[in-house]
Amino acid sequence: MTIQLNHTIVSAADGEAAARWLTELFELPPPQRFGPFWQVDTANGVGLDFDTVGDEAVTRQHYAFLVTEDEFTAIYGRITDRGLEHWADPATSRPGEINRNDGGRGVYFRNLDGHFLEILTRPYGSGS
């Protein structure tokens, strides 16, 4: 059996603003309207469908993105240029740092709605 994640819904106070924020930070194509959602497509075919929940509380989630070394450098540059808080660890005990887990690089930061985002260059458990 081959099971693949196709898409997930990301709750946002303003789905369009959240989707555009992500595509600009990651230099992805602009989000596309799909029904009530603003869809962002990733290179491996998984869609992030941003849903506007308005005044409802946004349940914060964690989304991790595997990127190349060059992409990490570019995205991390935009994170620091924008003055976004970021951490080397999910416990947020190492502010302003990146990690070098598994011989790669990784960093955690929050989006407009407080979702905890992560970019990493090596999957966990892939290195020494």
Measured as a percent range, the helix fraction is: 10-25%
Mean pLDDT: 96
Please, what is the oligomeric state?
single chain
From the alpha carbons, calculate the radius of gyration and give it in angstroms: 15 Å
Number of strands: 8
Reported for the largest beta sheet, the result is: 4 strands, mixed
Low-confidence stretches: none
Output the strand order for the largest sheet: 1-4-3-2
**Structural class, from secondary structure content?**
alpha/beta
Strand content: 25-35%
Through-space gap between termini: 30 Å
Description:
The protein is α/β, with parallel strands linked by helices and 128 residues long. It is 20% helix and 29% strand. It is built from 2 helices and 8 strands. The protein has helices spanning 15-26, 69-81, and strands spanning 7-12, 32-34, 37-41, 47-52, 62-66, 86-87, 106-110, 116-120. A 4-stranded mixed sheet has the order 1-4-3-2, with helices on one face. A 4-stranded mixed sheet has the order 5-8-7-6, covered by helices on one side. It starts with 6 loop residues before the first strand and ends in an 8-residue tail after the last strand. The model has no long low-confidence stretch (mean pLDDT 96).
Provide the fold topology:
Blueprint: E1 7-12, H1 15-26, E2 32-34, E3 37-41, E4 47-52, E5 62-66, H2 69-81, E6 86-87, E7 106-110, E8 116-120
Parallel strand pairs: 1-4, 5-8
Antiparallel strand pairs: 2-3, 3-4, 6-7, 7-8
